[in-house]
Design a protein that fits this description.
With about 130 residues, this protein is mainly alpha-helical. It has a domain of about 40 residues. The chain has three helices and no strands. Helix 2 runs antiparallel to helix 3. The longest helix has about 60 residues. It is rod-shaped and about 95 Å long. The chain starts with a helix and ends with a helix.
Length: about 130
């Protein structure tokens, strides 16, 4: 009877430790996700400002300038938009890769926990 009580207490302690580890892991993941897709960095803000400046200057020059300059500025604006779209696709690919990595690690951890649960169930059935 005492041995059974001791086993239950050790299992409860193990579960508490697992829960604490999970909470710590969750906080660490939140911090990483915040770095990847959270607050914009200085470089991102700088790129956005430069992009807006190029577009505004292109529009102003195309309005003020003649026909030759107008077509050149339209081409410059199209190139700037294309570069911005490529940059955004690249950023999204990084985020998607991170999500895939996270889901894979969660699946691996879940499988490990399921193995532990199955072995404990088998031990209980034997007792």
């Amino acid at each position: 009877m005492m041995e059974k009580q001791f086993n239950i207490e050790t299992e409860m302690n193990d579960l508490r430790n697992e829960l604490e580890n999970f909470q710590q892991e969750k906080e660490r993941v939140r911090a990483i996700v915040g770095k990847i897709g959270g607050i914009p960095t200085f470089n991102t803000k700088l790129i956005n400002i430069l992009f807006i400046m190029v577009l505004v200057v292109s529009v102003i020059i195309s309005i003020i300038g003649g026909e030759k300059i107008r077509s050149l500025m339209i081409e410059a604006a199209v190139i700037a938009l294309s570069i911005k779209i490529i940059y955004m696709i690249n950023c999204q690919m990084k985020v998607n890769h991170f999500k895939l990595w996270m889901l894979s690690s969660i699946e691996w951890r879940l499988n490990e926990i399921m193995k532990v649960v199955r072995t404990r169930e088998n031990k209980q059935k034997v007792e």
